[in-house]
Write a structure and sequence with these properties.
Helicase, Ruva Protein, domain 3, binds glutamic acid, 3-stranded parallel beta sheet
Length: 507
């Protein structure tokens, strides 16, 4: 079947070497969106062939993170078996899938056995470095001085193999050949094979390397597009050769290498040790490290916000619109609008996105989320109060946990009064003015915004202009906050009068 007619099947293929960071989630997201847009399949494949880098808990973390983001694969590890199970490469290896392909390459002369020990390889590197070779590699030139089935006599190779000598299988990369391939994001890329090393395809323990395994799986799983991070671009020429030598070039998935996500300074990749913002979607405890990494979720981000931010890292809709749900993205996403250059992450903008999604939440949901935080601070209020509180304060916050900082004075009577405001506005007429306000407030029957306002104006009619900010400071201690009369209505008549009384007594 020709590529163009292939059903869209994409895969996210992480190695379980740690928690999935935001760059990985973005790769998963773009795969997901592309699959959705084309009514195709999105597969989770776990590439665990490097046993030395395996990290306990990483696979479970990846599954949980994709679920939290709402970008679930419809096939693969943790999401249900399709016709291409198993989806873990370590399990696929047991079925002999990779070995078959490696043997094919050996048979056609496009791969060979190499018997070099790690000492011999180190020695080679030292020799090349001494000869001022910039990037020493095992290739068409250097392999001639090494111990492999291209340099050793046939019977020696046979003896070594039969004697159980350790060997790897390497790709036989030609010395000087143009390799040309198309990347959906980058266009045509041309690389000379002299730049490509004789990659190990099968390791001495029989495990395939990433290079062989992902190609075999992409073919076997009928993947139509391989979408992955830019760090894989330098390996792509070797991959093209493997497809070619296997006679599978016409079945090769189309390639798309996504741009890097850069740190806010724009001078490098985002580091997992970044202190200014979370890097992982969910908190991640690396079993090899003492301190956990706090996730976006645990920092108070909504998945909608997180996904929206990620979508705009390297892709743009071509309009000024910035807010998109996953479903909307799935309609408009296209690789043609993914750029080549790195995308700088802006943590302030990320917060702003969260604010947007927070404001869209029903007040009852915000109330529910804020309840435990309030309880921890030692306060409890009924549902109606909580809803009104959230409605009032939500314009001020970007995260649910900020409701406390922006509204704590509603629960706690002031100990002190904003000095600046007091120095500037409290004068010898103030006491009479506020006595009048107190008297008017005492007369309010139905303690609602409307009646509070009317009585406030009554007081003004008696004593002249009442400074609203000063009134606020006398009641809350602080100079700013949500709508004053709304806040007074919420606090209740008794509490407001008590606080005004205390303030006037003190001053
Ligand atoms: N296992 C590779 C990784 O973790 C996957 C690269 C690919 O998608 O081909 O980055």
């Amino acid at each position: 079947m020709r590529n163009m007619e292939k059903r869209v099947r994409v895969r996210f293929a992480p190695s379980p070497t740690g928690g999935l960071h935001m760059g990985g989630v973005r790769t998963a997201l773009f795969n997901y969106l592309f699959a959705k847009k084309h009514g195709g399949d999105f597969i989770l494949r776990i590439e665990d062939t490097d046993q030395t880098r395996f990290v306990e808990g990483a696979e479970e973390y990846i599954i949980k993170a994709l679920k939290w983001c709402g970008i679930e694969p419809n096939e693969g590890v943790g999401f249900g078996d399709g016709p291409h199970a198993p989806y873990r490469q370590s399990e696929r290896k047991e079925l002999g899938i990779y070995k078959t392909y490696a043997d094919k390459l050996i048979a056609s002369g496009h791969a060979y056995y190499a018997f070099d020990t790690s000492e011999e390889l180190d020695e080679m590197r030292r020799r090349l470095e001494a000869a001022k070779v910039v990037a020493p590699q095992y290739n068409a030139v250097t392999r001639q001085n090494m111990r492999n089935s291209l340099t050793l006599p046939e019977d020696e190779v046979k003896n070594l193999m039969e004697g159980g000598a350790k060997y790897v299988i390497r790709l036989n990369v030609p010395r000087n050949e143009e390799i040309r391939f198309n990347d959906i994001i980058r266009g045509w890329v041309t690389v000379n094979s002299a730049q490509v090393d004789d990659k190990v395809l099968l390791k001495s323990d029989g495990m395939p390397t990433y290079h062989l395994a992902h190609i075999v799986d992409d073919i076997e799983m009928e993947i139509s597009h391989a979408v992955r991070g830019e760090e894989w671009l330098p390996s792509a020429p070797a991959h093209i050769l493997i497809y070619r030598y296997l006679g599978l070039e016409d079945q090769m998935p189309k390639l798309a290498h996504l741009p890097l996500i850069l740190n806010p300074d724009g001078n490098g990749k985002i580091s997992k040790r970044e202190a200014r913002f979370p890097v992982f979607p969910l908190s991640w405890q690396d079993p090899r490290e003492a301190t956990p990494y706090i996730g976006y979720k645990e920092s108070g981000y909504y998945p909608e916000a997180f996904v929206n931010i990620l979508a705009l890292l390297g892709w743009n809709p071509g309009t000024n619109e910035e807010f998109f749900t996953v479903d909307q993205l799935a309609h408009i996403f296209e690789f043609e609008r993914v750029h080549k250059s790195g995308a700088k992450f802006d943590p302030e903008k990320a917060k702003w996105f969260n604010q947007h999604y927070l404001r869209l939440k029903p007040d009852a949901e915000l109330a529910e989320a804020f309840k435990p935080i309030l309880k921890e601070k030692g306060f409890e209020r009924d549902q109606e109060f909580m809803i009104q509180f959230c409605k009032l304060v939500k314009e001020k916050v970007q995260f649910v946990q900020e409701f406390w900082d922006h509204g704590k004075y509603i629960f706690i009577a002031p100990q002190a009064y904003d000095e600046k405001v007091m120095a500037k506005k409290w004068n010898d007429k103030s006491r009479d003015i506020f006595d009048a306000v107190v008297a008017q407030f005492e007369a309010v029957k139905d303690w609602q915004v409307e009646e509070i306002t009317t009585h406030f104006h009554n007081a003004e009619a008696q004593v002249g202009k009442v400074d609203m900010q000063l009134l606020r400071v006398l009641i809350t201690g602080v100079a700013g906050g949500p709508q004053l009369f709304d806040m007074l209505a919420l606090m209740g008549k008794e509490e407001v009068l008590k606080r005004l009384g205390t303030a006037l007594n003190k001053l």
